[in-house]
Design a protein that fits this description.
Chain A is about 70% helix and about 0% strand. Chain A contains ten helices and no strands. By secondary structure, chain B is mainly α. Chain B is globular. Classes of the chains: A mainly alpha, B mainly alpha.
Chain lengths: ~210, ~350
């Protein structure tokens, strides 16, 4: 148990520091990388809770895909930090109100009766598969919510593409289907050209011969 | 002997034993990586009617050692305008996941470091983390060519990861498990029972995506010598540069090992009269790695838009269709073909 506590507190400390650095780092790329670190450590804490499927899914989806795209965009931005910080003091009062409100809400939720239970869950027997259990519950008891969430995501994908798609007249693209159907005669014209030698050149060659 | 060692280390024995197992995997892997560099130069050399390296040692066999010593002796130049911490973190992040993924790879029915249930997911997660090395290296170099290389690489790896993931979904549907050992034992019964046959489109998609995922020719636009000099590692020198290459070759071994485990029956013997053995696994992996070298010597580099088209418009639809086919066939009397 002592070793597990040690791992937990180490991971928790790294997670807190990384989370803090996400909002305090001056460079947006550093902030994004600290967010990656935060996700990774959070996955470690989930592993301690024996939720290995969720932990690996967190690394796979958020670290491996979402944050790569984030970095992709952030790296290409040329952000002027001084301009970003211009209105800091004028926004501070309203931001402080929102922040305090959020903190109070979280305190209310976390101190509510759902979070009082402190009894540690019983350790699972060997051979217990977290992944299989999760799949079973997801596709039996929660089938309808699961499918609804899937449809919602699909609609969101279609909407995102439909909103950003614009037809451009000047964009160049190739049509592979047309490319493979090209015949030789479409591209090359065969011309019959009989060979011909200049008479003077022929004569000069004759003279050169001994 | 085991008992006396156990007594010697006392309570720290599990840690020592695990470390010993890690060394037993990583050390042969390092040697395999080193000799893959020689094999690549030799194989491509013979394919181009050259001899390849043959000066250092008999048949050039000490060439990887000489290369290693040379690279160790060279200075690591950190560009003045680079982001120094991240510049040095780049190679580390490239090689760490490439080695970490080997933790769950089974070499035999019992020979595996960590026999975890979600092994396949773990490997997918580790290989998806590997892209950070390239991205960070390209950005921290503060160089235009390096940056272009890292952008290309990021887009390419994210695209092909989807096709690769879907190809693996077909495997785990057939095997009913995410555990790599169970996936192999589910293919028992000889050559015609391996998953390459029922999942043939997925096997092809997986293998080509693996080539793209490891940034190898013909998908090596991230390096693209003729367009962006050397891509993301143009500013690296000495051992920092070598680490990127080690990571690339470690990834080649890894993806070939996975292809052998999931589609070619791992350590299972192709014919019933020969016993299952780890040698079969090495033979299969060796053949797949040879294919990687063969591709490099054969195909010209894809254009960038062609790579993206192949990934998104060809591979992902193929995998989706075949997943539906597998799922539908499992409800029919022919379900046994897909198990």
């Amino acid at each position: 148990m002592i070793f597990q506590d040690f791992v937990f507190y180490t991971l928790a400390a790294i997670l807190l520091i990384a989370g803090l650095r996400v909002i305090t780092a001056r460079n947006p790329v550093h902030a994004a990388l600290f967010l990656v670190l935060a996700f990774f450590t959070a996955a470690g804490i989930w592993l301690l809770l024996e939720a290995e499927f969720l932990a690996i899914a967190l690394v796979l989806v958020y670290v491996g895909a979402v944050m790569v795209l984030f970095l992709f965009v952030v790296m290409m931005l040329d952000i002027n930090l001084d301009r970003l910080r211009e209105g800091f003091w004028s926004y501070l009062p309203i931001a402080a109100v929102v922040g305090v409100l959020m903190a109070v809400e979280m305190a209310l939720v976390l101190s509510g009766r759902y979070f009082i239970e402190a009894a540690a869950p019983v350790a699972k027997p060997a051979g217990y598969s977290n992944t299989a259990e999760l799949g079973r519950v997801l596709y039996t008891d929660y089938l309808l919510p699961f499918e609804l969430a899937a449809v919602l995501l699909l609609v969101a994908i279609v909407a995102a593409i439909a909103l950003t798609l614009r037809e451009r007249k000047d964009s160049k693209f190739i049509d592979p289907a047309a490319q493979v159907q090209v015949k030789r005669n479409d591209r090359v014209r065969m011309v019959s050209m009989p060979s011909y030698t200049e008479p003077e050149a022929e004569q000069a060659q004759q003279e050169l011969k001994p | 002997m085991m008992e006396s060692l156990q007594a010697l280390f006392g309570s720290s024995w599990p840690v020592v034993w695990t470390l010993a197992k890690i060394v037993a995997i990583v050390l042969p892997l390092m040697i395999a990586i080193a000799y893959l560099t020689l094999a690549e130069r030799k194989v491509i050399g013979y394919m181009q009617v050259r001899i390849g390296p043959n000066r250092v040692g008999y048949f050039g066999l000490l060439q990887p050692l000489a290369d290693g010593i040379k690279l160790l002796m060279k200075e690591i130049i950190v560009p003045t305008a680079s982001n120094k911490g991240l510049f040095l973190l780049g190679p580390v992040l490239a090689i760490a996941p490439a080695f970490a993924a080997w933790a769950v790879v089974p070499f035999d029915a019992t020979l595996v470091l960590a026999d975890i249930d979600a092994g396949l997911l773990y490997i997918l997660a580790m290989t998806s983390v590997a892209v950070y090395g390239v991205i960070i290296a390209g950005w921290a170099s503060n160089s235009k060519y390096a940056f272009l290389g890292s952008l290309r690489s990021a887009a390419q790896i994210v695209s092909y990861e989807i096709a690769m993931g879907f190809a693996l979904v077909g495997v785990l549907m057939s095997a009913n498990s995410l555990n790599l050992g169970k996936i192999v034992t589910a293919q028992a019964g000889g050559f015609w029972h391996w998953y390459w046959l029922p999942l043939f489109p997925l096997f092809i998609v997986y293998f080509i995506s693996a080539v793209a995922e490891t940034n190898r020719a013909p998908f090596d636009v991230a390096e693209g010598e003729s367009e962006i000099v050397a891509g993301f590692h143009v500013e690296y020198s000495g051992m920092a540069f070598a680490v990127f290459f080690l990571a690339e070759y470690a990834n080649i071994w890894l993806v070939c090992m996975l292809a052998a485990l999931m589609f070619l029956g791992g350590w299972l013997s192709p014919v019933p009269f020969l016993p299952d053995s780890i040698l079969w696994l090495f033979l299969k992996v060796g053949f797949l790695v040879f294919c990687f070298l063969w591709f490099r010597a054969t195909f010209p580099r894809y254009r960038y838009d062609q790579i993206m088209r192949l990934g998104w418009k060809v591979f992902i639809p193929i995998t989706l269709v075949w997943i539906i086919v597998v799922g539908a066939m499992m409800q029919t009397p022919w379900a046994y073909l897909f198990h």
